TrEMBL record:
The keyword Membrane does not apply. GO terms for biological process: proteolysis. Residues 1-50 are annotated as: Disordered. SUPFAM superfamilies: Aminopeptidase/glucanase lid domain (SSF101821), Zn-dependent exopeptidases (SSF53187). The keyword Zinc applies. Keywords: Aminopeptidase, Hydrolase, Metal-binding, Metalloprotease, Protease, Zinc. It holds the Pfam family Peptidase_M18. It comes from Candidatus Neomicrothrix subdominans. This is M18 family aminopeptidase.
Amino acid sequence: MRRPPSPPRRADPVASPQRRAGEADQRLDDHGSGQLPDRVSGRPVDPTDDLCDLIAASPSPYHAADEVTRRLAEAGFDERSPGDDLPGDGPVVVRSEGLVVAWCRRGQPADAPLRVVGAHTDSPNLRVRPQPDRSVAGWRQLGVEVYGGALLNSWLDRDLGLSGRVALRAPHSGDGIAERTEASVGADDAGVGRSARPERRPAVQLRHVRWDRPLLRVPQLAIHLDRDISGDGLQLNKQQHLTPVWGIGHSSPGEFRAWIAGELGVDGDDVLSWDLMTHDLTPPARLGQADELLAAPRLDNLCSSWAGTTALIEAAGRDPADLEHPIVPVLVLADHEEVGSTSGVGAASALIVRLLEGSIRAAGGDDRAIQRALATSMIASVDMAHATHPNYPDRHEPGHPIAPGGGPALKVNSNQRYASDARTIAHARLAAERAGVALQTYSHRGDLPCGSTIGPTLAASLGVGVVDLGAPQLSMHSARELMAVADVEPLAKLLTAWFV
């Protein structure tokens, strides 16, 4: 019998991502389609449980990057900062806030092809404004801005927590170097979890925070005050109708800043800025008559980030001598995909190019080696795909139905909204054959605008062939999304075979 979801708990002020994610273990029984080896013990791990652990540990892109980096470091990857010298051999992970770039070299030639898996760490949500304090008719509210293409109605009438990062005035120290730290904040206490590598930003401390208790709620208008909703549908204005309430009374300027300071145990003047966002507090859960479905927040695109991380760890344990054609497995998890990828930590960032070229130079390569390596490299851009919606089958291209449990979907678009072409699709099909994984093919309906991925962005910045693919899901960009449990493990298997 499945255990019912437990209510959200106050976060332990010193809880690690492992401990927070471990709460998911109490909510999910073992009905997975297969087993993966644990990163340290080697014991079998249910893939869906492992994905849910990562989701639970990752309410924001910063926490997602923390969790992926932790998993890679646990598997033996050498953690470096963007400005560090890079080793010429061995597994390496470099993170810059919401961006993670990792690879594994074990004696491959400097000009060996890069075989890249790319995904993203961000998801649509509501983000706290710089001056958020407001009140209307006796309700205290927090000003927010919609991030990305969120399904606005899905954020109504939900208990919401807050997560992200806060920039604090750093304590004065002899070397002037602040550390990035993580805090998990409860209702009545605050504290610092694990500390990370020094971040060379003098006088500023970036603290990763999460409040896993119901702080906010966006209340829907009662039907008695909106009689047209049944005929005209719900009409939401991003500016007017999505401001959450979080108390009663009157808000004064600086109140939210003072609240953060109290939660973190610092002076109000030491709270310099923040990047904070809402997250749904409902935990991941299996559902359906036979527990065949997984409902969870941020499946787009933490499912792909999980699969890429799992595949890279598996690839790092291989002996390159066993490969007929040595390749260098690479993982790129970028932030800001939902808003166009053009940022210092997005897929369009020059930092990604510098790190990949730097890894080749560290292995003894020169400009010519970089050219040779990139000329034969390929990227799998992994982002969730639209399953055919049972209530709206007419919204899909009829010749390309996507079924739950049917395997990852290759994504093709003639207008380059997806970067797949005949050559890269062929290589993806060969990888699927090696993995024993079935593939589907997604093509967007011609009279509807097609979304995009980091695929075209990476193809343009690196000049490398890209195939776009992803696991199918429903309710994309909802606060809570839906996929088949049977589609979780095949995605990781496909990406593991991609690294061959």
